[in-house]
Structures are given as structure tokens and as C-alpha cells.
Amino acid sequence: MTSTFDNSQVQRLAASFENFDAVSRVNLKKAGTVTARRVKDESKALAQSDFTSGSARAYPHAIGYETIDRVNDIAWEIGPDKERRQGPLGNLFEYGSRNNPPFAHLETALEANEEDFVRGIEIAAAQTLEDLLR
Q1: What's the CA gap between 24 and 13, in Å, rounded?
Q2: Are 56 and 93 in contact (CB under 8 A)?
Q3: How remote is the C-alpha of 56 from its chain's centroid?
Q4: ∠ CA(43), CA(44), CA(47), 5° rounding?
Q5: Is the separation of the CB atoms in 41 and 78 below 8 Å?
Q6: Exposure pattern of 10-36 as b/e (b: 16+ CB <10 Å)?
Q7: CA-CA distance, 120 to 31, in Å (whole number)?
Q8: Does the CA dihedral 115-118-122-124 come out positive or negative?
Q9: Using 50, 70 and 90 to split pLDDT, how confident is the model at 112?
Q10: Contact between residue 110 and residue 39 where contact means Cβ atoms under 8 Å apart
């Protein structure tokens, strides 16, 4: 007696994983970019509340983010742009100095958005699997 096994579904699944990197990359980039934008906006708002007047009022406008899309990974740099007015003062404002207290705008915003980032990654993983199994 011979038995047959229909493995077409397994082959379809294996073929879909060939696209895993491309599909997951798009979804992960989306998730990270949303969180990076939220961290930027929140840190900018925190900085604006601390520096509404005085000599550092241009600093919040120097805060931005950049998506770095490399071959093997994606990264987001969030913080003051050193090319913008008062951007080079970011380390002094964030970490303080011997004579100045720190104003942890970026760290506070990053911690506040940590759960959102994890949730975004979970959604990206679910979307990737859904896309692959279609």
C-alpha cells in the first residue's frame, strides 16, 4: 500500500519565506519610523516647554530624526541636528554639565514610547506573516 502526501501548502509556505526579508523590512521600517517620529515630536514638545524663552528657544527646532536604511539593518537617529541653530548644544541640554542641570528630553520621550515601539514591532511581525501567507 502506498500513501501520498500533498505537500503543496508546505512548498507554498517555503516559497513565501524567500520574500521574508523584503516583506518584514518594509513592515519593520514602518513601525520604527512611526515611533521615531513620536519620540522626535515628544522630545521637541518637552524641550519647548523647558526653553520657551531665553537663549535656548531655537534648540527645540533643531530636534529631528533620520532613518538609516542599510543593507542588513535599519536604524533611526533621533536628536538635535548639529547643522541647525543650537543643534550642537544637544549634549549639554540632554546630559547637563558641571554647571548646568540636564534636561533629559530625548531620554524621557524614548522611555515614554518604548511600549509603542514594542507594539509596533508585534504588529509588523503579524503583518509580515499575513502578507507571506496570502
Answers
A1: 15
A2: yes
A3: 26
A4: 85
A5: no
A6: eeeeeeeeeeeeebbeebbeebbebbb
A7: 5
A8: positive
A9: very high
A10: yes
Contacts with 4 (C-beta within 8 Å, 6 or more apart), sequence order: none
Is residue 73 within 8 Å of 51, Cβ to Cβ?
no
C-alpha cell at 14: 517555503
Q: Concatenate the DSSP letters of all residues of the chain into one string.
A: -------HHHHHHHHHGGGHHHHHHHHHHHHHHHHHHHHHHHHHHHHHHH-SSSTTTTGGGGEEEEEEE-SS-EEEEEEE-TTSTTGGGHHHHHH--SSS----HHHHHHHHTHHHHHHHHHHHHHHHHHHHH-
Which residue type, as a one-letter code, is found at position 96? G
Over the stretch 12-57, which tens digit does the pLDDT of each residue have? 655 655 666 777 788 888 888 999 999 999 999 998 888 877 778 8
pLDDT, tens digit, for every residue of 49-73?
888 777 788 889 999 999 988 877 8
